[in-house]
């Protein structure tokens, strides 16, 4: 589509259900009560001049450009702050207003450099537009620039510049930082002509400030004061495409603005139902990896991993891959090969990979990183609620009175939703945080949790059981809800269990290390504070009791009646952009799309008739089972699309041994990732900018991904899988991903009403979307549970087998940081490294002192599985006895120390609890040095020059 700026109605939409009718310039208009005059005028296409007003922010009334005349009212009130009233008569354009607006605009222009021809915002500048709107053609006061002497341009931020000489002090950037992002990093200094925007630090630059580079200030700026560097370098966009971000599970909608085949900027789309016009540093700015020089765009093969890569044609690559897979199956058997789907690829691409494995390989050896992170969510919620997904949409948080966050770090992992959460807390909602670290949500400017329960890692079930004990023994359960919606006998069994003295906060305190009085107070607040919503993340699922913890959370929600309406619910915050979709599409070895077991004959028959094949009724191997079987010599080939299991999966040495034992590893990705060190065939992948399809976010929202530019490798990922399937002998003839979605809808009940046409019409749909719910399902379990009655499950606390002791006295837990994403393959190839150039080990000051470690020192981090080295960050954000690190940089390979322990129900790895020791170090470990040497050797590429 042609590039156009999205309509701005000046002030936010009123949510009132009552209407008011007024007259604007002789035209009757009916709007919700509480609307401003400016908003009402915009609704009928009358644009009142404005500078300080924008519909993403509260009305402010400072620029005095939006003046109007109202019959019977004195003066010329600002339309952005004047509410409508019944029968009001408004005039937006009169000689008096014209004169006043010209005078106001003259003052703005007199203090603004008139370098429009060379300004990056030329043609996209609101000051320029409004000068034309008020008819200003001459300025009586000359610009001298004296007021801006000494106000140098700030180029410190990697993505945008700040030029104070062009600032009109409208405060929109400051207000956006406050109201939308919730960081409060900016302020207005001084008064009058000397006033200016400040980043609030002694250095007063954006990079050293508390700014998180979400881009809200840049988007709000009406001039070229805040400008993307890419806009300056590339030029004004000429077309745009609305698509969905490929980073975290929030699923933000963006307008990708293009100039030719070059992406100029990503602008958050106001109509995006997941992000509502907001963004984070990754989605807004960190897209440079798509054209990074390390991107692999040509297929490559080699006979063994000690040889360099050889570039080949696509045809040669497909033929070689198919012949190797067939050879290995012929030699070692039907189940000797398998594949891994990607939580970063589209639903359509993921569906095709599992179809290739089931219909082409003839087995169910398919797995995904979605199981590695969130399979306990699927198991736990399906067991208790009957459906393997979160219950709410993101808008639901606006109705929450008490928010309980457990094992999640929203400001780093899901920042756009965190901003909405913080906004609700500033409006009065109460917050409880259950986390071994003091995450930002515990205390940041203008919000603070009522209770932080800093539990010992691995004791989630004990803490939740203690909370339930308080609710049951103090008579705080919602008995009416439970009797109507849940199995009463199971509830009584559960309440008898949690009510036992052994489950009291006091009895469990030596286990959890949580203050019993704080825990009791938090339990009472959640049970009695109104609408209670629970949000959780990988700190819940990545444990040996991950599934038990999810069921304990579900028990808590049911016991307090917090299910089935806005403002409540159980909400897993998915890590990657399409974790939910990868699960939905049948990426597990035991489940077909739609969470139906492979052993169910009726379901299997449905797919067999559609695909024209006979499916194996036996569940296949999970990733750790594939690796074990490879080491045992019976699993010999693996097709990996868009995952880096060597860096992301636990016990790196075991992963490496499994990959090394295989005869054919096929990696399909953007870069030569860590897994590719052990690959024999490399198929270049495509980015989200280069394909059509859909992602499904954490709120079950299916959203369009639209092709913005041509694939640098020549193929979208779904096309690569299709060509491999053809080479394997399958007669696949898809011409567009919409045809794949039609097949998904045909075979998957929860997707029955989904099509590309419907998504284009609605913007997005939340499954289930079918005949029973044609518009989708924002809130699940309204009026009753999908699976019938809600099921309470007794969740006894079982300590992990991973124990601390004299050799390994500390507990390591891992997580993410705002500027990076997953294994960092994308964000490390952007300017985001300015904020986090390496993984650091957070150590409590007492533990650091005991070991003679100072901030910035190299440390040795060792466990029973392995060791690595990284620099220390001494901080009281972690409790004594707990250390924390991220896993974004392969030089660290944090997972070399994590163990093989996993969730009892799903094999989800126990990343969050590893017994370790930390000691001073002089530099990289032997393993790190060996790994770096192997990686360097493995990434050699021989480029064969074409004959003339």
From TrEMBL:
InterPro entries per UniProt: 2Fe-2S_ferredoxin-like_sf, 2Fe-2S_ferredoxin-type, 4Fe4S_Fe-S-bd, 4Fe4S_Fe_S_CS, Asp_de-COase-like_dom_sf, Formate_Dh-H_N, Formate_DH_asu, MoPterin_dinucl-bd_dom
UniProt-listed PROSITE patterns: 2FE2S_FER_2 (PS51085), 4FE4S_FER_1 (PS00198), 4FE4S_FER_2 (PS51379), 4FE4S_HC3 (PS51839), 4FE4S_MOW_BIS_MGD (PS51669)
Residue intervals of the 2Fe-2S ferredoxin-type domain: 18-96
Enzyme Commission no: 1.17.1.9
Domain spans labelled 4Fe-4S Mo/W bis-MGD-type: 238-294
GO molecular function: 2 iron, 2 sulfur cluster binding; 4 iron, 4 sulfur cluster binding; formate dehydrogenase (NAD+) activity; metal ion binding; molybdopterin cofactor binding; NADH dehydrogenase activity
Keyword Cytoplasm appears in the UniProt entry: no
UniProt-listed NCBIfam families: Fdh-alpha (TIGR01591)
Name of the featured protein: Formate dehydrogenase major subunit
The organism of origin for this protein: Sphingobium boeckii
């Amino acid at each position: 589509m042609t590039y156009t700026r999205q309509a701005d109605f000046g002030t936010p939409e009123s949510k009132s259900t009552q209407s008011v009718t007024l007259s604007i310039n002789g035209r009757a208009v009916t709007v919700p009560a509480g609307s401003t005059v400016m908003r009402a005028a915009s609704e009928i296409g009358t644009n009142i001049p404005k500078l300080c007003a924008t519909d993403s922010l509260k009305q402010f009334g400072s620029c005095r450009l939006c003046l109007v005349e109202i019959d019977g009212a004195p003066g010329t009130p600002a339309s952005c702050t004047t509410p409508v009233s019944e029968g009001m008569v408004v005039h937006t354009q009169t000689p008096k207003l014209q004169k006043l607006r010209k005078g106001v605009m003259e003052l703005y222009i007199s203090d603004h450099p008139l370098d429009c021809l060379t300004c990056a915002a030329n043609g996209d500048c609101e000051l320029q537009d409004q000068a034309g709107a008020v008819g200003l053609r001459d300025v009586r006061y000359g610009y001298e620039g004296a007021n801006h002497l000494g106000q140098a341009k700030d180029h410190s931020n990697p993505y945008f510049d700040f030029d104070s000489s062009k600032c009109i002090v409208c405060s929109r950037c400051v207000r956006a930082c406050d109201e939308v992002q919730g960081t409060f990093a900016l302020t207005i200094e001084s008064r009058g002509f000397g006033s200016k925007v400040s980043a609030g630090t002694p250095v007063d630059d954006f990079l050293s400030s508390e700014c998180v580079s979400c881009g809200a200030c840049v988007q709000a700026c009406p001039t070229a004061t805040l400008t993307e560097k890419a806009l300056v370098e590339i030029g004004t966009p000429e077309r745009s495409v609305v698509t969905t971000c490929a980073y975290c599970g929030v699923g933000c909608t963006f307008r990708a603005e293009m100039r030719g085949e070059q992406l100029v900027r990503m602008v958050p789309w106001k109509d995006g139902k997941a992000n509502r016009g907001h963004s984070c540093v990754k989605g807004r700015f960190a897209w440079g990896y798509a054209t990074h020089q390390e991107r692999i765009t040509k297929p490559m093969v080699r006979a063994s991993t000690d040889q360099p890569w050889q570039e080949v044609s696509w045809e040669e690559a497909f033929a070689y891959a198919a012949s190797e897979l067939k050879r290995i199956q012929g030699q070692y058997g039907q189940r000797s090969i398998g594949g891994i789907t990607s939580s970063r690829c589209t639903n359509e691409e993921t569906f095709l990979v599992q179809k290739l494995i089931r219909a082409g390989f003839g087995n169910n050896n398919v797995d995904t990183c979605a199981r590695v992170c969130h399979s306990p969510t699927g198991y736990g919620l399906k067991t208790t609620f009957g459906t393997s997904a979160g219950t709410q949409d993101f808008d639901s948080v606006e109705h929450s009175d008490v928010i309980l966050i457990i094992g999640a770090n929203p400001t780093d992992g899901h920042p756009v939703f965190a901003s909405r959460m913080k906004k609700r807390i500033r409006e009065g909602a109460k917050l409880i945080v259950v986390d071994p670290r003091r995450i930002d949500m515990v205390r940041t400017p203008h919000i603070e949790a009522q209770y932080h329960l800093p539990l010992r890692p691995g004791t989630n079930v004990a803490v939740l059981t203690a909370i339930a004990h308080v609710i049951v023994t103090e008579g705080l359960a919602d008995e009416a809800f439970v009797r109507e919606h849940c199995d009463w006998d199971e509830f009584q069994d559960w309440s008898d269990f949690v009510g036992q003295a052994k489950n009291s906060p006091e009895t469990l305190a030596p286990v959890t290390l949580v203050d019993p009085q704080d825990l009791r107070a938090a339990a009472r607040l959640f049970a009695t504070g109104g609408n209670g919503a629970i949000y959780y993340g990988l700190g819940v699922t990545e444990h040996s009791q991950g599934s038990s913890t999810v069921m304990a959370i579900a028990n808590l929600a049911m016991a307090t009646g917090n299910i089935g309406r806005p403002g409540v619910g159980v909400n897993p915050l998915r890590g990657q952009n399409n974790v939910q979709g990868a699960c939905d599409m049948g990426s597990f070895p035991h489940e077909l799309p739609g969470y139906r077991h492979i052993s169910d004959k009726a379901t299997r028959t449905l797919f067999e008739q559609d695909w024209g094949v006979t499916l194996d009724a036996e569940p296949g191997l999970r990733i750790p089972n594939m690796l074990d079987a490879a080491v045992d010599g019976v699993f010999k080939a693996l097709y990996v699309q868009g995952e880096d299991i060597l860096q992301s999966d636990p016990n790196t040495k075991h992963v490496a041994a499994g990959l090394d034992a295989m005869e054919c590893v096929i990696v399909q990705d953007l870069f030569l990732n860590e897994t590719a060190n052990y690959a024999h065939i490399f198929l270049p992948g495509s980015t989200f900018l280069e394909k059509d399809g859909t992602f499904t976010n954490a709120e079950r929202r299916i959203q369009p991904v639209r092709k913005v530019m041509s694939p640098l490798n020549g193929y979208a990922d779904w096309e690569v899988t299709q060509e491999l399937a053809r080479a394997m002998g399958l007669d696949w003839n898809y011409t567009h991903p919409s045809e794949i979605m039609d097949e998904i809808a045909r075979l998957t009940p929860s997707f029955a009403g989904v099509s590309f046409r419907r998504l284009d019409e609605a913007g997005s749909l939340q499954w289930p979307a079918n005949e029973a719910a044609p518009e989708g399902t924002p809130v699940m379990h309204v009026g009753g549970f999908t699976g019938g009655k809600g099921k309470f499950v007794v969740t006894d606390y079982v300590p992990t087998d991973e124990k601390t002791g004299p050799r390994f006295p500390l507990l390591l837990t891992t997580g993410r940081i705002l500027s990076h994403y997953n294994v960092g393959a994308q964000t490390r190839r952007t300017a985001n490294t300015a904020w986090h150039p390496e993984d650091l080990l957070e150590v409590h000051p007492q533990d650091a002192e005991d070991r003679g470690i100072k901030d910035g020192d190299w440390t040795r981090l060792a466990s029973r599985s392995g060791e690595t080295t990284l620099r220390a960050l001494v901080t009281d954000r972690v409790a004594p006895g707990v250390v924390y690190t991220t896993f974004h940089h392969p030089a660290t390979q944090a997972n070399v120390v994590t163990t093989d322990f996993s969730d009892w129900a799903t094999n989800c790895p126990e990343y969050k609890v590893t017994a370790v020791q930390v000691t001073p170090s002089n530099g990289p470990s032997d393993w790190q040095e060996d790994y770096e040497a192997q990686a360097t050797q493995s990434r050699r590429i021989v480029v064969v020059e074409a004959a003339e």
